[in-house]
Write a structure and sequence with these properties.
By secondary structure, this protein is α/β, with parallel strands linked by helices. The protein has helices spanning 15-25, 45-48, 64-71, 88-102, 120-127, 161-175, 204-207, 222-233, 266-276, 322-336, and strands spanning 5-10, 30-35, 76-81, 105-110, 140-142, 155-157, 182-189, 212-213, 238-245, 252-259, 283-285, 301-307, 311-318.
Length: 353
């Protein structure tokens, strides 16, 4: 594909929308056509994302009506949705309809939760409200890119950031039949995972130099993780998940523990992970414990493992805004557009963040 594909970003001034803009600015074959903000149409994007001023000095937020008109004027389009769950589905449906009416070739990657479930009943059981576009659900597949080489649908729902980190650690255990299906997961996330609007749980004076759990054994992403793991392995896992809020801005650290079906040494476990991900350019398996700073702001995931005979622990670190959201979405879009999945995503972590 020699010419750039126009990209539309839904998500207004949110952190994930800003990360999408940052990554697209360095992508050789995607070009931002518009970013939606119904509340601030015409306002400069640099006003909300000052760090992107050099990349987008003249870009202004557009209204939904303006974006709908744009979709009808281009031959192809990459649609990224970082809109909130409960809102994203209706926006996506409207723009896909506009593209269908105009004959525009469109692919969508949704980063919200709206298309992560295979039925309205499953979605509504978790989110307690009606789905915004039930007829579109069959057009989306939800999976981590490393666990499904080709999407069977024209559009993709990217799993959440906790789900991404957890699945990268858990799926090889189930797929290789190393453990039983009962998994115990501890995850620690940075404050950017809670979004841009300040609330008590993410307010810096509350979170600084502290660590605390929330939603222990009842987090709403558990059914999503179980469904994605089953799609990747055919195994219905039992997931016991305890999330934590960490005193840092970017990154997720997850530890998955399980009982081994037969004893293996730590080195064997690490080699099994390496073999499983040997064709996955963004997953790196090391001999030492992974650190968030080694992946923060990048699309890479670092894993390692340890065993003590009967049990295994797999540690996984990702950047929540990049690999767990915007970067993973671009990785999927690259595939949907027929590009190498690494296009525009190979920059290493900056370190010392």
């Amino acid at each position: 594909m020699s010419a750039g594909t126009p990209a539309i970003v839904l998500g207004g001034t949110g952190y994930v929308a800003g990360e999408l803009l940052r990554l697209i600015a360095g992508h050789p074959l995607l070009e931002v056509e518009a970013i939606l903000s119904d509340s601030q149409p015409g306002a400069p994007v640099a006003g909300a994302f000052a760090h992107l001023r050099s990349a987008y000095p003249d870009l202004k937020f557009a209204s939904l009506d303006e974006i709908e008109a744009m979709v009808g004027r281009v031959p192809r389009c990459a649609l990224f949705s970082a809109a909130p769950h409960g809102v994203a589905a209706a926006l996506i449906d409207r723009l896909l309809k506009a593209g269908e009416a105009a004959g525009t070739r469109m692919h969508c990657v949704d980063i919200s939760a709206d298309f992560r479930y295979s039925s309205t009943a499953a979605y509504e059981a978790v989110y307690k409200h009606a789905h915004g576009a039930p007829s579109r659900i069959r057009e989306f597949t939800c999976a981590v890119p490393e666990h499904l080489q080709k999407s069977p649908t024209p559009h993709v729902a990217h799993p959440g950031c906790f789900a991404t980190a957890t699945l990268l650690a858990a799926v090889p255990l189930l797929a290789l039949e190393l453990t039983d299906a009962r998994l115990f997961v501890t995850g620690i996330t940075g404050s950017t995972g809670s979004g841009r609007k300040p609330v008590e749980g993410t307010h810096h004076p509350h979170r600084h130099s502290d660590l605390y759990t929330y939603g222990a054994l009842s987090h709403r992403h558990v059914p999503e993780i179980i469904a994605c793991a089953k799609l990747a392995t055919g195994v219905e896992a039992e997931l016991n998940f305890v999330p934590h809020s960490g005193p840092f801005a970017r990154g997720i650290h997850v530890t998955v523990q399980a009982s081994l079906k037969k004893p293996i040494a730590t080195a064997q476990a690490q080699e099994a992970l390496r073999s499983y991900y040997k064709d996955c350019p963004f997953v790196r398996v090391g001999d030492t414990a992974p650190r968030i700073k080694d992946v923060a702001s990048s699309n890479y995931a670092n894993l390692s493992a340890a065993t003590n005979g009967n049990s295994i622990a797999v540690m996984s670190v990702v950047d929540n805004l990049n690999k767990g959201a915007a970067g993973g979405a671009i990785q999927w879009m690259n595939r949907l557009l027929g590009l190498a999945e690494t296009t525009g995503l190979t920059a290493p972590a900056p370190g010392w963040t």
